[in-house]
Amino acid sequence: MSRLSGCPFNIRDYSVKIKNPVTQVFERVKGLNSMRVELEAETEDGRTGAALWAEKFIKSREVSGTLEGRPICDRVTGARDPGQALLHQAAMADGGCDNDQTLRIADAIGRAVEYDCVVTKEQGDADGDGETVSWEWEGVGSPRALPYVQASAVGFADGVNAVTTLTLAPGEVKALRVTFAPENASNQRYGFSVADESVAAVTGADELNLTLRGVAVGTTALTIRSMNNGLTASLAITVAAN
Fold this sequence. Notes:
Shape: globular
Number of domains: 2
Distance between the termini: 75 Å
Largest sheet: 9 strands, antiparallel
Structural class: mainly beta
Number of helices: 1
Number of strands: 18
CATH class of the largest domain: Mainly Beta
Order of helices and strands: EEEEEHEEEEEEEEEEEEE
Oligomer: single chain
Strand content: over 45%
CATH architecture of the largest domain: Roll
């Protein structure tokens, strides 16, 4: 006796990452618009209902899933999104133990589960609404719930150095990184605001990377606030003529 449970998610609330087997760094898979994780549990005596989930009756669990979205490519170089590229490489591989992948799926507050898996299929389609791409994967072994690490501080960094002030010229663009302490904080979502956007403005935001542009001579402040526990940090910005 087995039972199949499919669990749909609102993908906007979730982060899906795949580990790069060379660098061991997790790359976020961008462009996703749907996801499904399915759990199949087999019992020793064929019981159903609540008893199915009693550990003493479970003989095995199997997990599988699908990811679907739109292809993401760099407009200048044509390079595929790093996360999508890793899924593509895994789907095109010959299989076997050397093709095991690790997916990390985290919910809106950063609670994450890792799945060892094999990406079994990639499929692309195109219609009047545009292109879509999907991947199917099969779990290897049991999912692992990761420990939750609470953030204790947020800040800004210019390269590797922490910064609390920034000076720009009108029209100058500067890249900054939002930092969390500890670095492995589970929830690294945040919101930002600029006190006076007639002086400086955020022109780009990609995960922890922000791009600022000086607009006109003056002073203002960029403030970030962690979405989980309300930690804040401010960057004093001065825009001065050359």
